[in-house]
Amino acid sequence: MAPQIVKLDDALQELLQSQVTIRTYEDAIRELVENSADAGASEIIIKLDFQSLSVLVKDTGTGIAPSDLASVGSRYHTSKFHERDQIITTFGFRGEALHSLRAISNLTIVSKQKGLKPYKSWDGSVEPFEELELANFFQIGDLGESGTSVTVTNLFSSVPVRRKQQMQVPEYRTIESIKQSLLRVLCRYSGIRMEVYKTNYTLNALDCIILIDLGIKSSEKYSSIIRNLFGKSVLPSFESINYTFDPFKLSGVIGKSCISSKSHQYIFINGRGVILPSNQLKAINRWLTQTMLDANDSSPTKSKRHFYKYPIFLLNFITETKLEDLIHDDIRGFYYKNSDVIFKMVERVFERFLSSQGYQVERLSTSMLLSPDPRAKRTRSNPTSPTRRTNPKISSPSRQGSPTKNTVSNLKYFQASPSMNLKCNLLNLAPPMPNFESSNLVSPNHSCEDEDDTLYPEIPVGFQLSRKDLLQGYHIVGQVDRKFILIKIDNPTYKEGSSHSPILAILDQHACDERVRIEGLLKDFILQALDPSINILLKLVDSIQIRVLETEQELFTRFEKNLNSYGIRYRIVGNMVIITHLPHIIIQKTMDNEFLKFCLIQHLYDLDNQIKQEDINVSKDEWFRMVQHLPRIIVTLFNSKACRSSIMFGDELSKSDMNNMIQMLQQCHLPFQCAHGRPSITPLTNLEGHGSNSNPSI
């Protein structure tokens, strides 16, 4: 008998719903601070205890009437929003935050209105409050004429898995998120004084970590907020902006330089974070970065290989908003109903900013808006997808040339192996060949242990190449134009139902040798890094000093062990990182200190954003798994070294040379692409009527 459908009990409903509204420690802090700001507070004090996941937020707002304290914490009970058509003028309006906190923590609220005594709400009861209560780190003290203090202790105590997860979040990351929340509040209520403290159990005291008291002119508002929260070096130079796009009023600030993180890009409506479609935000970033960096970087392609730079901006749109204008996302902010209107205004603002700075401005193109992120993950081709249109050219962007229709048509001039006889019209090979783009060749998700993985997209003539095909047997036909190697593959992978005839394939000799060499270089480096008895670092004669932001300093501290494992050692003195040791591959490369700084910071952000893993436990046989987690600068330098030392176009190869190269290529984890991702092998056509053991004549 099927189980009966029943309603969940109230306590379980509250527990489940609370995890939707409050997911993290910083979520709880944000909700409490926004409540204080909405109450008209001129001062907010925040006390944090990371060890117990507790927080106290005390304000000088209007306070809560004793008669209302019993309703505080009840779901959908709020004093801020009463009618559907009401203009939303506050952060909070749903009546869910305190209700959720009560379900997953110990919640105590003390409040005082002007002319009344303070009252306390705790565990559903309301009673007068004595100031001597809670005499610890979270002592409330005098509430003055009016104000409210909310204490949350042992957050997620009823959800142990979530609590354990939160306890593992690095402290610096939580503090950074808190600063982001304070920034949103200050954009809406700029006159608030804010003090943030954290417990110091060693000294049995509270350490002040943030102090904001902005008595500033409106024209300097946003730049002062960013500089006070994140440091002046985040925004060394800037331009304040003020525009009117009826019914919007826009004010904000745009930085004149770029930094290594996208974390300081803010678009607000009334201080509330607005989520633009990802393609719009990516297009803005590409457009601004290309315009600003290409104008200032004498070698922009050089830096783009190693690190990314992003513009800084804060744009706050002021307008009337109603409930139907906003779709709430608890994690990221709000979706605005007319996001395209916001995007057009943002585009206009940046055009004017770039022009005012003397940049040659090209309008944000439709192609840039629609084009995918160049770093987006590529997926494997779908075997059931429609056949690609053929093109009489192999797009193989190898180092000094590519096999074109003309090259293939002239294959009659190559030196064929005497043992090979091929009855096929080489002049007709070009028409069935597809146009191969390097972006379609290999998925970054390819499992190197899976030798049956198809590494090429589907080919119209009915076959696909996989790593297994090279291992099952091949015959060398000969070298073509001292650039390519023509081979016959005996047992290729075919689509279901196709005949199993051999195929003719062409190899880029430079790309193949480059692949062999890059895997050898990376393997040697990784195995040395894994072996504690081998020292891969070299001490610098003159140490390198680089100045970093406060958040970057935290990253250098947090991931010091990871950088040390790759031969990068340093010490931190104030806001300076003093590099004392580097691996040989970096020392060999002449680069300025600023360039090295951004390369290292890029790796730190990759680790912090979990693009790369910090700790990888692999055996020596699994060394290839570590490649994608190496610092980009190290991989790129090895790529360059492999390229320079590889066989070049124009080098004549004997049959023995070609055979040795292919045999080494067979052992590579990614044999179908060179170190830079270009194709190394391209199938040309099938040889119908000739089995693998046939010996036809050419």
TrEMBL record:
Annotated spans, Disordered: 365-406
GO biological process: meiosis I cell cycle process; mismatch repair
Keyword DNA damage recorded: yes
UniProt keyword DNA damage present: yes
Ranges where the MutL C-terminal dimerisation domain occurs: 476-653
Any one GO cellular component localisation term in the record: mismatch repair complex
Any one Gene Ontology molecular-function term assigned to this protein's record: ATP-dependent DNA damage sensor activity
Feature: compositional bias, Polar residues: 393-406
Entries under InterPro entries matching the protein: DNA_mismatch_repair_CS, DNA_mismatch_S5_2-like, HATPase_C_sf, MutL/Mlh/Pms-like, MutL_C, MutL_C_dimsub, MutL_C_sf, Ribsml_uS5_D2-typ_fold_subgr
Pfam families per the UniProt record, alphabetical: HATPase_c_3
Domain DNA mismatch repair protein S5 as annotated: residue spans: 226-355
Annotated SUPFAM superfamilies: ATPase domain of HSP90 chaperone/DNA topoisomerase II/histidine kinase, DNA mismatch repair protein MutL
Keyword list, A-Z: DNA damage
Domain of life assignment: Eukaryota
Record-stated family: Belongs to the DNA mismatch repair MutL/HexB family.
Name assigned to this protein: MutL C-terminal dimerisation domain-containing protein
Annotated organism of origin: Suhomyces tanzawaensis NRRL Y-17324
